[in-house]
Amino acid sequence: MSTEKYFMTEEQLDAKKWQMFEEGKALKRRRDALEDEIKKFVTSWTTMAQVFSLPHNQTFLISDREIELSNPLHPTKRSDAIPWRHFDAEAIKLLLGDFQRTREEFEQENKLLKPHGIDLGREDI
Fold first, then answer.
1. What are the beta bridge partners of residue 58?
2. Measured CA distances, 119 to 2, 20, 30, 104, 111 (Å)
3. Do 105 and 27 meet the contact criterion of CB atoms below 8 Å apart?
């Protein structure tokens, strides 16, 4: 048990819990945003895997920023544009490292708040 409650007023303790709560919510938002970015990478890789399973049916428009994939047999189907950064090993390492650090910080903050009856893991927070 923390000794901070013996040296802080109730108002100070409540303010500290509120600050931790706000920091935890910010970490949760950041973690979720990074997770969404990881999902975009996965979607790109999945799309490329599907395309290369039947490459003879695809056309590739290659630019400095992305690869646009389309299927001339299905001209009404939306083409997929895959950013090159989704295949950049350094960008992937940075994203995964940032995600892991943010997730660990979030879990630590949540662990500190749980004894106070606050669970940042809930969907409604």
1. none
2. 18, 12, 17, 15, 8
3. yes
Q: Are 28 and 125 in contact (CB under 8 A)?
A: yes
C-beta of residue 69 within 8 angstroms of C-beta of residue 58: yes
Contacts by residues 48-52 (CB-CB < 8 Å, ≥ 24 positions apart): 48/82, 51/80
Per-residue pLDDT tens for 61-88?
Answer: 899 999 988 777 766 666 788 999 898 9
> Which regions in the chain score pLDDT beneath 70?
1-6, 74-78
Strand-pair category, 59-62 with 80-83: unpaired
Cα 17 from chain centroid (whole Å): 25
The DSSP annotation for 56-111 comes to GG-EEEE-SSEEEEE-TT-TTSPPEEEEGGGG-HHHHHHHHHHHHHHHHHHHHHHH
Radius of gyration of the chain (CA): 22
Write down the pTM of the prediction. 0.76
Query: Distance of alpha carbon 2 from its chain centroid, rounded?
Result: 32
